[in-house]
Amino acid sequence: MGLILLVQKWPFVAMLVLTAVLGSFTWLMLVRPIHSSAALLTISVYILAIRPFHKFLVAARRSKTFSEFAKSKNCVKAPALPTPFLGAIRYKIKLLLYPGGDLLDDVFAKKYERYGPTHALHDRFGVPKVIHTVDPVNINVILRSRAEDWCPAKGRANTMYPLAQEGLLNSEGEAWMRNRKLILRHINTKRVKDVREAEPDVQLLFDAIGPADSNGWTETVDLLDLFHRMSLDMSTTYLLGTSANAQFSGIAARKREAIMLDYSLVPSKRDREMTYEEAYDVVRNYFSWRSKLGSKYWLADSPRYRKACSTLNEFADGLIKRAMDNRSNCQTSGEPASSKYGLIDSLVKEIGDPVHIRNLVMDLFIAGQNMTGTMVAWVFAQLSVNADLFVRLRAEVLDKFGTEEAPRDALTWDNLQSCSFMQNVIRETLRMYPLLANIGRIAKCDTVLPRGDGTDGLQPIAVPTGCAVTCNIYLTHRRTEEWGEDAWEFKPDRWIGRKLGPEFAPFGAGPRVCIGQQLTMSEISFVIARMMQRFSEMRTPEGQDNLTKGYRVVVAPKNGVKVQLRLARDSTPHKSPLSGAEQA
Q1: CATH fold of 158-434+477-583, please?
Q2: Domains of the chain: which residue ranges?
């Protein structure tokens, strides 16, 4: 302790002493050349000792300047987490091998309950290294009002390595601004406004659910799996212009043969190659492990993971090349370029680098595919245990859009938004199960969070440059201070007359808010409406728990969403109602 105080008070003297030691050692090496193993051992010990001492001096000096900054801002020290022996390693093991239960509720929630809404891990000098917060005021400062003081944590790029490096979500500074402007210019707003383009994928979903028995009930199906497949097809069609055909593996062989399309770039199981669907599933599992390992992400690696990454990249590369060849041929012939290659076609017009295009598209694909499929699954997980909500939601949909036999208004973005109860159900689902349970940021400069310590927890705390901050959105959405005593209950009616505030951030906030949130919301609304038109009832098999959470890359139902669905009497299985006007 005395050495720490000495270095903090007289860092210049400490540096002089270090320089003298280095000089003396160098002189001894010149006067007495190395001729023995003992001398080599001496050098090794010296090298191993001097680096930690140098880091110690730098940290001590940094501590002094940071203390002066904190004092100038009238900041106090954030509540400290204990640092037991091998605490970090034990914590990682706990995250990786948590034996059942609910990691979010049993570990994270109890930690915040014990140490407060904002707490930190400190170094030996008392300087924060990592800060954890669920305070919406702090989160609003980090993500929105002082966003320029923060940059994304490196964890996401490391988790996804070697996929989608330098894409939209993994870039910073000017590169990020260029990427975001580029994507915003070329995102197809027509798809957002006319979500009925997703109807073919929804029809495949109905085929995958399967036929009904004489009483109208289907067999037990896992909606989580089916919605993920549907979302995978929707994402690849929109971004790449070609479906991954993930839903076909959920359809009976006879029907698959009747409706299979020829996509030469989709790997075939007949060739014993990894399919796009299988590759994505492998990558998603590894992402879960790598995100929990943090800076040790490289421990979760294997030839199978590398093969899966190559499969995804090769799929995108083939389509990018096809779009570039199409554009080149059209320029030569003078004909207008085809726009059938999704977002890729728009990016090809402006970017000449196929690797850059692939990084942008894969980044968006991985993020978007997780969102739509998982969120729709959570909606139906809640409806499976709340029959009254299912009845209310279906009544609103049929009142607005009619049945499949007698459709009314078109299933457009504006009309879907006008279904107030449906939108409240979606918002409540996003509140209870935000897909991004944690959002990480790194301080780019010495800065301040407005709340964190003091007797009332409302005093500001200083944050040093390089400090990592984790915003736990999942628990922020369940704070009783903002949401009431029933914050842990699913109640869509809480949104009646409620305005959105900083306590609600399912898509993030500020400059880096999710760029595809409107598209995601439109797809979720469309799928829910079509499911309500097709099925009139839903029941859960005995013993099935659809609400247990699994925390991988996103928060998803751990046991799937296994239900039986009853075909509506007024449904026509092979009819695809798009709008009342079109039926007329």
Answers
A1: Cytochrome p450 (1.10.630)
A2: 158-434+477-583
Q: Which residue type is seen at 204? A: L
* DSSP result, 354-411: HHHHHHHHHHHHHHHHHHHHHHHHHHHHHHTT-HHHHHHHHHHHHHHHB-SSSB-S--
pLDDT tens readout for residues 59-80? 778 888 888 898 999 988 888 8
Other CB atoms within 10 Å distance of the CB of residue 451: 19
Please say whether the beta carbons of 103 and 93 come within 8 A. Answer: no
- CA–chain centroid gap for 188, Å, is 22
Rounded CA separation 203/541 (Å): 25
**Long-range contacts: 28-37, Cβ < 8 Å, 24+?**
none
Q: Give phi and psi for 443, each to the nearest 5.
A: -70, 125
More confident residue, 504 or 42: 504
Full-model pTM:
0.82
C-alpha 573/C-alpha 293 separation (Å) is 47
Segment (H or E) for 426: helix 420-432
- Indicate if the alpha-carbon torsion angle 98, 103, 105, 108 is positive or negative: positive
Residue 371 to residue 202: CA distance in whole angstroms: 17
CB 579 within 8 A of CB 409: yes
Tell me 272's DSSP state: T
Task: State the DSSP H helix or E strand holding residue 539, giving kind and residue range, or none if neither.
Answer: strand 535-539
The rounded distance, in Å, linking the Cα atoms of 238 and 197 is: 10
Contacts 24+ apart (CB under 8 A), 352-359: 354/317, 354/320, 354/321, 354/324, 356/166, 357/320, 358/313, 358/316, 358/317, 358/320, 359/164, 359/165, 359/166, 359/167
How large is the greatest C-alpha to C-alpha distance in the chain, in angstroms?
100
Q: Comparing C-alpha atoms, which of 222, 195, 203 is closest to residue 531?
A: 203
Residues making up the binding site for heme = 514
Distance CA 179, CA 177 (A): 5
CB 368 within 8 A of CB 183: no
Q: Which two tokens stand for residue 582?
A: 């079109």
Which residues carry a binding-site annotation? 514
pLDDT grade for 44, boundaries at 50, 70 and 90: low
- Which is it for strands 128-133 and 468-472: parallel, antiparallel or unpaired? parallel
State the Rg of the chain over Cα.
Answer: 28
| CA dist., res. 294 & res. 436, Å (int) | 16
**Cα–Cα distance for residue pair 522/509, rounded to 1 Å:** 19
